[in-house]
Each structure stands twice: as structure tokens, then as C-alpha cells.
Amino acid sequence: MSAPASPRPAVHDSHPDFPHETAHLKGTVDAMLRQIDFWEDRDRQMGADLETSIILADEAGEHAAMLSPHVHHPYFGSLKVRVGGREQTLYIGKHGFRDVKGPHSVVGWDSEVGSLFYSDALGWTPRRGGQGVIKRRRQLDVAAKTLHRVTDLYDDEAGGDTGGREEVLLRRLEEGSTAGMRDVVETLQPEQNTAMRYPAGTPVIIQGAAGSGKTTIGFHRLAWMTNAERGPHQARAEACMVLMPNRVLATYAARILPELGIGPVNVTTPEGWATGLLGLEKLEVTDRTLTLLLTDHDNTRRALAWRRAKLLGDARMLDVVRTHLWNRFNAALRGQSLREEVALNRREAQVFALSDADLHAILRDVFAADPLSGYRAGFRRAVEDLAISQLNVPDDEEASVLRQLSAPLTALLGRVFASTTPVTEARRLLGSPEALRSSGLLTEREIALLGTDPLSGIPTPRRAHADATELPLMLAVQAFTGGIGRLDGRTLEPFDHVVLDEAQDYSPLLYALLGRATRPGHLTALGDLNQGMHGYKGPSSWEAVQAVLPGAEVLTLGRTYRSTRQITELGARIAATYNRAAQVQGVDRDGAEVQRYVAPADAPHGELPLIAQAVKDAQAAGHVNIAIVTRRAVDADRLAESLRDFDTDAQPITTQEHRFRGGLVVLPVSLAKGLEFSAAIVSSANAQTYDESTEYERRLLYVSASRALHWLGLVSAGDLHPLVA
């Protein structure tokens, strides 16, 4: 989260082309305003009749509304290209615009030509043949219809690469954070651009360290997928979904989507999507495994809970559920039959009958077909198709025959499928060693593990609830019985594209289900195995995800852009202790040294005065959006209240219902993950809070210490943690 809500520099650029670029900008703005005036003049939108005129006027109004926000910032860069001996300059912006009466057109950033602005390539082959050569890339800082700066990124006549790309990037990164997510369209780096534009139709896993821009890259990839140039892979925004780990991030992230032209995308959490699909929106979803990991000091119990949660999310559980349902439905079909007399026009009534053996054969075919809509709908459709075929029903009588079969068929489906609800069936399976054993996929030790309850000491809500680790199993039952995908009215269809943020926290089973719910190849996962705070749910490696998403490619962003050199080096030191991503390269952006505040362990007020002082120091350094990061939500609540005695008023964010609106906040690391702030203060940054001997605790410390863009403070009553001291 952060954004270039920039104080732009004053207009005093010394670039020799500044006057020319200023004049071109004015011409582009004037051309856009003329086009908007034309579209908004309803008298000019005349058709052959009144209805056609209204339609044309409405369409013109929509075009005007889409272009209007871009008048103040028509473009941000340009390309001078030579194609077939002819040179021309193309201007790159967030919204494509064609000036039908002049030279002031704009190419969209998400087009194939727009991609050339971000890459290091110096040549390309246009669609109409010939060979294209890049002569110059130029960044143009524009705001409020005014040109502020011209920066050449590459100039063939000046010797090639000018170093301007890094200069522009550093300028943007030095800007303060806001309460929104960073829009990186203007400063996409070549490796980010490659990941964003990886060939459509391929599942992509983007692995990137904290601050590498993977979340915003995923959003921009989604916007790129909606461009008509994607052809058969083009996605409809309203048919796409973004899954964020919690509602704080979902609300926060949704703010950028309208700016990218994909406002209708559904942004939700895995739990929100799952309960909505199950029709159980009021079901309370808990994560008792996380509660145990954060509060219980019994390592044996913690390890048991971890292993059981991992097994619940194992991809094999999909076939365990399928085998269980096959046995259940086959047993329910024994002794069943269907017999109904069907009236047909101009013919004698005919009897449609299916025996026990016929019904079993249909069920076998339905399981083999594995329909998206689920076995119940697939079974019904198979019986109806068989009836139409056997009775030789003409097209104009099909509806009548299906109405006559509806009641007896519904009754049969009720006897076979009705008692199989996702919640009860998932729990019935887990409570039956025989059912778990029937698939032959689980060892006896694993079956015994699933039968244990290491969470018995963790309280459960009084109302109907489900645990986050159980949800994928319930979704698997839903997928096979009632179907899975995007609800469009009463029908299910595959999502056009799905983006998963914090993808290291999604189980392989959930990946398999999302792959089933989405068009083949249309899933983008964004994650960092170093930040796996919920590793008990997530994959042990990306290979485990590739195993359930055929053809998935893992792309690594090797550079982090968020923090200063000092903060990046501290985070890398922590991450290196669990042997991953120690090679992450930061932007060479110097900043303030990491500030360390230490009080004696027996100080009267503990670390409270130090935290208050750290806040004042961060504010004195010019930072507004500041986070105080705690290990647990209960710590954040207490800290927010106690700090008032030290003239420090911080907004607590302790549940998913809270919203981040900027300013000074105090929040647990579980909710800070995915956010970034101008300054961050890690409270209780010591080995008593973050156990040095436990990898999970070091991961939490890494996440806490990697939230800051510019300024980081570490506070402890007693010695600081050895990794940050």
C-alpha cells in the first residue's frame, strides 16, 4: 500500500525539448476536450430513428465518461520509433485515445506497443510487417494538464541508456505513502513488465520478496487481461475475482481497480467467497490453528495442529472426497428406480423407466465427466437427455416432457443427494476412519492424525461456525455435489480470471479447487514463501502448486522496491535464517539508519515511553502514515489505549472490519502483512516475543520489519532480538 500521490516539482525543467513537449501536451488536452464535447452533444448523435439515436447518445456518453478522468493526465511517456524508414513518436498513457483530426493520439499502456515503453528491447516486429526500431524512450511527468519534467530513459543519439529509468524510479519511491495501493503504470520495471505480460492462458505464480510490487503487478496483469488484444483469452472484468487474505486488505486493494478500468472485479477473501458459494454467509469462520500457534507454548501441541492443518489442505484430499462421495451415492442408489408415464402429442403415452443398474451406470458416467455444475445437476441432466433420446421427443415437446419428469426426478435426487451438505459431509468424512481409508491415498498414521483434535483447548463461537482449515474440504464437497465457479444468477460458469494475493497461504487443495472454478490457464498467484505466516495452510513449495495447476510457471521478481537500503538489508538478514530469498536485491536508495529504542527490562512503564518517542521521531522526520506493529491483536488493543497516557493517539486496527484511512495506526502483524507505511515501529522486538529458535516466529519478525518505506524503529524493554540488534 502506498502511492505516488505526489507533490510534483515546480515547472522549471531545463530539458531542451521541454517547450515542444509542453505544446504537444496542450494540443492533446485540447483534442481530448473537443472529442468529449462532440460525444456529449446529443444533437450530433443522430440515428435513423429515435431508438437508434438514444442508443448512440448513450454510447457516446459512456465514451466521454471514460475519457474525462484522463484529460488532466493524458500520458506519462513517449516512444520515438522507426518503422520501414519512417520515424514517429507514440505517446503512452493509461487510456488509449485517437485524435481523428490531428497528431495527438495516445497509446494505451496495456497494448502490445505500450509494452515497448517498459522493456529493454530495442526492436520489434509490428503486426503489419517490417521491422521496428526504438530510437528513444522518454518519461513525461504530467499533472493537472501541466508538464513538470522530461526525463529521457533511452536515447539512441545520446549513446543509449541514460540511467533515467532508475532516476524516475527513485523519485517515485521517495514519495510518502498514502492510504491506497501504489499505481505502478508509470514506473513498471522491465522484470515487472515481463511478469505482468506473461502469455495469456498460462497459470502464473509470481514469487517476490516484500516490496517487489507483486500485488500491484497482479492487478495490472488483470487489467491487461481485459484488453481486447488478448483475443480468446480476454477477460471480462465482471467475470473476474481477486482473493485477498483479509477484509482490511480487500477494501484497501479495491481502491486501485477503478483507476485501472476494472472496477467491476469482485474483490473478496477466500472465506467470503467460500461461504457465499456454500450459501452460508452468516457462518462464522475461525482460524483456531493460528490462535493456537500465537498463544500456546506447548510445542508438541503446536506441531500436531500444524501437521493436521497441512494434511487437511493436501491436494490428495480432493480424491479422498471424490471417493467418499462415490461410495455414498452408490449406496444411496441401491434399490432405487425411476418409472414415469409421459404424455406426447399425437402419440400414445410412453413409459420412461430406469432400473437400479441403469441409475448406477448414469452415476458412473457423471463421475467420469466431472461436470463443473456438480454431480447432482450432471445426474439430472443425464437422465433428462436419456429420456429425450429414448422417447424420441421432438424439439417442440422437450419442455413439456421435462416438466412431466420434474417431480419424480426431483424426488429421486432428494433420496440420493439431499442429505449430502458440504459442512456435514466434510465433518462426516473426517469422523470416519473407514471413509478416509477407502480412497487408499492416506496412510494409517495420516488417518489417525485427522482423527485427533489438538485444538480442543481453543474456544469455539456459540453460533454456527467453521474453521479456515476445514473450508477447502467443504468446498471440495460443494464442487462435486453442487458445483463450483462464478455464480451468474442461478447458473455457474468458470471465472474468466482469478488473482490470488498472499498466495503462499493458500492450500494445494484450494488451488486445485480454484483451478476447477476458473478457465484453464487463467489464474495468477502472487506470493512470497518467506512471508508464509500461515504455512500450516499453504504449500511447502511452489512445485506443490504446479502439481495441481498443469503448465503453471513460476516467475521470480528478484528486486525489492519498497524500502531503503538500510531497511532492506535488515529484512534480508532475518530472511536468510530460513534459507530462502537471501539474494533479494534492493533499490540503491539510501535513507535513515534503523532506529533502536531499548529500555531496561524492569523499566516502570516498560516500552511505552519509547514507542511514544519513536512516533514523535518519525513524525519529526516528516512521516504521516505510521504503523506500530504488534505480534497479536490483543497487544494492539492494549497498546493503543495505554499510549494515550503518553500523548500518543493511535487508531487500533485489530479486526478485519477496521479500515485503514491513513495516519498513525497500531495493528498486529497478521493484519499488517500486505500493507506498507512511510514509517513503521516494531514493538516488543525481542526474543521473548519472537522466539529465535522457531522459524515461524522469525517469519513474523521479517514481516513486521519489512512494512516501512523510509523509516523503521525497533523498540524493546530489555535486549532487542539478536537478528535486529
TrEMBL record:
Residues annotated to bind ATP: G208, A209, A210, G211, S212, G213, K214, T215
Domain UvrD-like helicase ATP-binding stretches: 187-564
Gene3D superfamilies: P-loop containing nucleotide triphosphate hydrolases
UniProt organism field: Deinococcus radiopugnans ATCC 19172
Any GO MF annotation of the entry: DNA helicase activity
Organism domain of life: Bacteria
EC number in record: 3.6.4.12
Keywords: ATP-binding, Helicase, Hydrolase, Nucleotide-binding
Pfam families, per database record: UvrD_C_2 (PF13538)
PANTHER family for this protein: DNA HELICASE IV, UVRD / RECB / PCRA DNA HELICASE FAMILY MEMBER
InterPro entries membership: DNA_helicase_UvrD/REP, P-loop_NTPase, UvrD-like_ATP-bd, UvrD-like_helicase_C
The protein's name in its UniProt record: DNA helicase-2/ATP-dependent DNA helicase PcrA
